[in-house]
C-alpha cells in the first residue's frame, strides 16, 4: 500500500437535497412541489412514502451541523426548495422560506463549513408543472427570476452556486419514461425539457453573476453516464457513441462548448424537431463556470445490436433516453449494491482524467459518490472509536452500524479520485453521498445511502463505520492506495 496525500486546499464535503432531508412540507408558506404531487399517486413510490417528514432537517439542521463538525468536513452541499421561496405563481418572495435558509447558511459559516448551494434539485413548484413544467420555455425564465432572488437574499454566504443537479434525471426520468416526477412518458417532451433545462442553467448563471458580479462561483452538477463498450467491435463502439451522445453530450456540448452535436438532431428526429431552440439560446447557455460537478456511482457496459430495438415504452424502461435502438445495456456484474449497481471505481478515475483532458482549465468536483446497502444496527455493544482522529466527541449511545461494504466502496472511490489526480486530473473536491439516510425518490425509504443512519421513527442519528472512516480520511487528508 502507498499513502496518497491530497493538497491542503482539497475540499472534503457531504451532500443532501432539500426534498430528501428537509420535511416540513406544509410549514412556513411552502406549497407543493412536483414530488409532493407525484408521491400521492398510487404505486409510484415503492413503500408508499413521501418526503413529508424525511430527516426533519428543517427543524434539526443545528444537530446535523454538529455531525458535520465531528466529521471534520470543509463543505456541505445542500439544495433550496423552490416552493419555499416562491409559493405562488407570480407571487411575492416568501420571507419565511428565505429566513430558514439564511439561518442554515449562517450556522454553517459559523461552524466554518462552506455552503455549496444547489438551486434546483428536482423539486419544481407544482404550479409551474401545471403550465407544462420543463417542457414550457417560460419555466426557464421563471428559474432565472428565482436564481436572481436567491443571489440577492443569500449574497456572499454561498461559496459555490450550483445551477442544477442532474438535469438528465429531470428530463429523461421525469418526462421520458416517467419513473420520476412529474411522471410523464413522452420523449418529445423529454427533449424539450433537455433544452429548457440547459437554457435555465445559462439564464440562472447570468442572473447570479448579474447580482454578485464575476466573483460569484458558478457550477453545475451532471450525472455523466460512464458507458463502456463491451469490445472494440464497430457495433459496440457505435453503441457507446450513441449512448454518450444522448446521455452526456446534450448537456456537455451546450453548457461547455456552446453547441449541440448535429448528430443529436439526426438520431432524435422521430421524437423532436428541436423547434424549442431559439436564436441566441446557445450563447446564453454557454456560461463561464468555476467548476463542473460530477455525480458518480457505477458504470454501464453496452454493446451494439444486430437488430435495432423498436422504439416502444418497454424499451424506454430499459434505456430511459430516446434514440437508443442500437444500444444493448448489459446486466451489471460483480457484487452489486442494494440499488443493483455495479462497483467499478476505475470508471471514476477514467472519467475525471478524460474530462480534464477535454476541458483542461475547468476544475472538477465529485459532488456525489456513495453506495446503498441493507444496514443493521448493532445495539448494546461497547463501541470503540479508533483511528487518527479518535477524540471522544462522538456519541454512539451504544448503537452503531457496521457497514464494511460501504466502507470498502468509500475507500475504493476516494482512491479512484487520488489515482485521477496522479494522472493529472484537475479535481478540487469530493462530497460523500449522503450525509444522512434519506428519501430515495421512487424507492422511498427502502434504500440507505447515508454515512450516518437515520432512525425514521425517532429521527435519532446513528453513526456508521463509513462515517467514522470518512472522518479519518478527512482528518488525514490522505488515502492508502494499492501499488499495483
UniProtKB/TrEMBL annotation:
<dbReference type="InterPro" id="IPR017736">
    <property type="entry name" value="Glyco_hydro_1_beta-glucosidase"/>
</dbReference>
<dbReference type="InterPro" id="IPR033132">
    <property type="entry name" value="GH_1_N_CS"/>
</dbReference>
<keyword id="KW-0326">Glycosidase</keyword>
<dbReference type="Pfam" id="PF00232">
    <property type="entry name" value="Glyco_hydro_1"/>
</dbReference>
<feature type="active site" description="Nucleophile">
    <location>
        <position position="368"/>
    </location>
</feature>
<dbReference type="GO" id="GO:0005829">
    <property type="term" value="C:cytosol"/>
</dbReference>
<keyword id="KW-0119">Carbohydrate metabolism</keyword>
<comment type="similarity">
    <text>Belongs to the glycosyl hydrolase 1 family.</text>
</comment>
<protein>
    <recommendedName>
        <fullName>Beta-glucosidase</fullName>
        <ecNumber>3.2.1.21</ecNumber>
    </recommendedName>
</protein>
<dbReference type="InterPro" id="IPR017853">
    <property type="entry name" value="GH"/>
</dbReference>
<dbReference type="GO" id="GO:0008422">
    <property type="term" value="F:beta-glucosidase activity"/>
</dbReference>
<feature type="binding site">
    <location>
        <position position="297"/>
    </location>
    <ligand>
        <name>substrate</name>
    </ligand>
</feature>
<feature type="binding site">
    <location>
        <position position="121"/>
    </location>
    <ligand>
        <name>substrate</name>
    </ligand>
</feature>
<keyword id="KW-0136">Cellulose degradation</keyword>
<dbReference type="InterPro" id="IPR001360">
    <property type="entry name" value="Glyco_hydro_1"/>
</dbReference>
<feature type="binding site">
    <location>
        <position position="433"/>
    </location>
    <ligand>
        <name>substrate</name>
    </ligand>
</feature>
<dbReference type="GO" id="GO:0030245">
    <property type="term" value="P:cellulose catabolic process"/>
</dbReference>
<feature type="active site" description="Proton donor">
    <location>
        <position position="166"/>
    </location>
</feature>
<feature type="binding site">
    <location>
        <position position="165"/>
    </location>
    <ligand>
        <name>substrate</name>
    </ligand>
</feature>
<feature type="binding site">
    <location>
        <begin position="440"/>
        <end position="441"/>
    </location>
    <ligand>
        <name>substrate</name>
    </ligand>
</feature>
<feature type="binding site">
    <location>
        <position position="20"/>
    </location>
    <ligand>
        <name>substrate</name>
    </ligand>
</feature>
<keyword id="KW-0378">Hydrolase</keyword>
<keyword id="KW-0624">Polysaccharide degradation</keyword>
